């Protein structure tokens, strides 16, 4: 029962398609759309995705560090192997001059085998570095992460501006209702009054998500007061 209650209280995560549908409905009819009631879900979705990306970022940084360590230790291993091969060849040549052909052949064959295996290992280590390290370097660029965090910060600011203004409007309406003794009519939730703030929030959501629908990007939709 506790798990069921917890699941019901968890914030809903919106998909991109859900967000686009809600935004289009709001653009078509701001007075009847349900976008306003889903704004907290939009914000929670961005926060959850950002948290997940931060975890991925930390994991990839650790992976990059491990690959660098493997590459460094691998090349060091190759250097030691090459010195080992040189010793084997010296021993083989030494026994060859002593007409000890059987022992000489053993050392020289072992040197050839070790050189071939070492070359394969060196190629493996270098390929790991080339295939993984360089792409990770691009993914983990500081400026990309900073840009993402800045976009999230802008989205949070637009959410806060919206929340503060709608709270102020609600307070003013309640005060006016109290003074005039009016009954609040259904639908007077600030939907139309807050259209400009919602457009800014929608634009920030699109920038965070990397998609900017033409309708939202159109400055005409931000010109309302």
UniProtKB/TrEMBL annotation:
Domain of life from the UniProt record? Eukaryota
Q: Which InterPro entries did the record assign? A: AH/BAR_dom_sf, ASAP
The record, for SUPFAM superfamilies, names:
BAR/IMD domain-like (SSF103657)
Q: Which GO terms describe its molecular function?
A: GTPase activator activity
Name of the protein this chain belongs to: ArfGAP with SH3 domain, ankyrin repeat and PH domain 3
